[in-house]
Amino acid sequence: MEIRGLENIPVTPALIASKHQSAWDTTIFFKTVPRVACVLKKELMGIPVFGWYLKKMEQIPIDRSGGAGALKKMVRLGRKAVGRNRSVLIFPEGTRSPVDTAGTYHPGVYALYTMLDLPAVPVALNSGLFWPRRKFTKNPGTIVIEFLPQIPTGLGKEAFLERLEHDIETATKNLVLEGLEK
Length: 182
What we know:
- The chain has a single domain (2-181), classed as Glycerol-3-phosphate (1)-acyltransferase (3-Layer(aba) Sandwich).
- Helices cover 36% and strands 16% of the residues.
- It has five helices and seven strands.
- The chain has a seven-stranded mixed sheet, sandwiched between helices.
- Helix 2 links the parallel strand 3 and strand 4.
- The protein is globular.
């Protein structure tokens, strides 16, 4: 693996908003982002041992079908994490997307951005080339994760979501093309 843009991760809490292509993505942030709390689907908390570990680490489980109540809980738990000097990680598309696809960016990322009043660090990656979603096989190659320049606080919803999606999708396409050329 190759990690780029570590200088874009602030020493103070931030909202880390990442592309999500494979199971690999869910582990790398615990190595690269100090004191991170991850927004994750609540079903993961029910996995024996692994779920207990996530709970002990005070991750942020959400019920993806929970509507406004789930959003409020996510923001509340995000505030708690920030109060403990932790960054908050979210996958704005909500689930893994195939390498050649841009999923829908959900409003939860904007809720965290505005309600936590944190700069956002977009993250691009090419992990789906080598750890494809819903496949047991792994392909040889170098996974690249790139932390992009911060998006400052204070943008409106449309401007924020447009910039976030543009930054992540553009950089991800470049990383995928780079990975295919090797």
